[in-house]
Amino acid sequence: MLQNNLFLTSNVDDKNKFIDYVNRAANTIADSYTDSRAYSGLTPQELKELIKETPLLPESGIGFDSVLEKVKRIVLPNLLKVSSTDYMAHLHSPPLMESLISELILATGNQSMDSWDQAPIATEIEVDVINQLCEIYNLPKDSDGIFTSGGTQSNLMGITMARDWFCNTKLDHDVKLLGLPQEYNKFRLYTSEVSHFSVEKSAHLLGLGYNSVIKVPVTNDQKMNTEILRDLIIKDLESGFLPVAIIGTVGTTDYGSIDDLETLSEICQEFGIWLHADAAYGSGLILSQTYKEKISHISKCDSITVDFHKMFLLPISCGAFFLKDKTNFSHLTLHADYLNREEDEEEGYTNLVGKSMQTTRRFDALKVWMLFQSLGKKSLSDTIDKTLNNANYFYKMVDSNPNFQVVTKPEISSVVFRYSTNKLSDDQVDTINKRIRRELIHRDGIVIGQTIFDGRVFLKLTLLNPLVEHKHLDNLINVILEKSNYN
Length: 487
What we know:
Blueprint: H1 12-31, H2 44-52, H3 63-75, E1 87-88, H4 97-109, H5 120-136, E2 144-148, H6 151-170, H7 175-178, E3 187-192, H8 198-205, E4 213-216, H9 226-238, E5 242-249, H10 261-271, E6 274-279, E7 303-307, E8 319-323, H11 342-346, H12 365-399, E9 404-406, E10 414-419, H13 426-444, E11 447-453, E12 456-462, H14 470-484
Parallel strand pairs: 1-11, 3-4, 3-5, 5-6, 6-7
Antiparallel strand pairs: 2-8, 7-8, 9-10, 10-12, 11-12
């Protein structure tokens, strides 16, 4: 027998129950923040044992109170506290308070962004937000965009658009209707050797394969070497290959390096190639009054990936994809009588599914809409500037310390470094750095990243939290040196 008060409705009892649930959940969540540690320290094995006691689907439900109590005991204490100043590991931001409320609203409303009649006001807000974001990124009036789940989906869309545009304009071939052309195994996509793995993943999903992706060497500052890129394109053309797109990175995952979009645009113009910018990380710089010139050439790109759940400090997931020429969205458009009827669109009803790879899609535009208006340009700029200033400070501290080795000066807010000493072999130093990271997680509740550079193990900070102060960074250096046993 179903219980009463299942949903939030206009009924007074339903409203009261909703308010009660939200208040109790909010209090339980807030009470779980008992210290500044980023993580409780439990190992994978300990977490598995903790979860074992709870069957997923009991014969009879145990009720909200009992479930909330289990969440309080098992889940909340062991969640990663991404708002902690001790969390500095990944492109995984602490969500700003205002955006948590927008999540509650969009989850409660549960709008589906595929058709206007499933999301009337949500559709109109997303269209308006996209239009204003196009202006913020200095895109032309014929540009357009769509909200996505994040960088991987946006990059897939960008490479899909590049492939179909190339086939239509260069080969007079309609991929949407006919599938891949016979020449598909000659297609080439160029990206730096430190770009995001979603480029290769996209090539696989699009039927082009990993071998179509040419990984271009980088300079010492971890940017795509444009001279080598140009030579590779010329050699490929001479060998009968078909250059389709260049994928420039605006903030590589490890180093935060920004490829030279101006030169990449010139190369694309010279050879008739599509330019996609993976700006999932660095797109937030557009809001900085101090650092926005770092990405001033992003408007030259044919397509752009933006993530709002990174530098913009919004909850996962919230991304967007932009096209300089909105007519290229036609590569995705397909009409269905039950969803996006052409007659409705002719009368002014916007059905966003025609621009998206997703059908059911969340009203994530609300998070941007509420946050931007709540904080405004000055606060958002100051927030982003703080993270870049922190990265520069940490870089100077470790670069000047003989106990550390640093890869490159940060361009955004990531620093790749490691404890190093000539008293030990490289293999021994690798082992020490691995141990340091594990001990930080499980003994100190401090979470930092780890990566590989030049075949060796390095540690990584990705500083997105504006609450991090120099004292936190100084403390981290001291703790690492203490754990190295060779300070």
